[in-house]
Amino acid sequence: QVQLVESGGGLVQAGGSLRLSCASSGRTSSSVYMGWFRQAPGKEREFVATIRWSDSSTYYADSVKGRFTISRDNAKNTLYLRMNSLKPEDTAVYYCAAANILTTSRNWYHYWGQGTQVTVSS
User: Fold this and answer.
1) What is the Cα–Cα distance from 113 to 117, expressed in whole angstroms?
2) Closest alpha carbon to 36 in 89, 100, 109
3) Helix or strand or coil: residue 52?
4) CA max distance for the chain
5) 55-92 pLDDT tens trace
C-alpha cells in the first residue's frame, strides 16, 4: 500500500515562495504519474500539476504555469512543488496523489495524501 505525506505548507505573503514536499512510503508499478491538486474553501479540488515519474515530463494547469514547478527525487521517493510569485488565490489545501495515466481528473488518482495548508496573504 502506498502512503503519501505532504509537508511544507504555511503562511506567506503575496509574491513569496514555498516548496511543498510529498514523501511516499512506496510506489506501485501502476503509479506512473504523480500530481498535485488543491482545494480552497467552498470549492472543488482542482488539478495543479503532474509529472511522469520515469522521465520527469510535466503538465500544468494554466493558472500556475510559469509560477509553479513540479519535480521529483527518485532516490528519496519524494515529489516536490516549488511555488513562486504566490497570489492570494493560491490559498488552499494542497494534496499530492498518484495515477497511472496522464490526467487532470482527480477521479483517476488512486492514492492521496492528507494535505498541507498554504495561505497567501495580500
Assistant:
1) 12
2) 109
3) strand
4) 42
5) 889 999 999 999 999 999 988 889 999 999 999 999 99
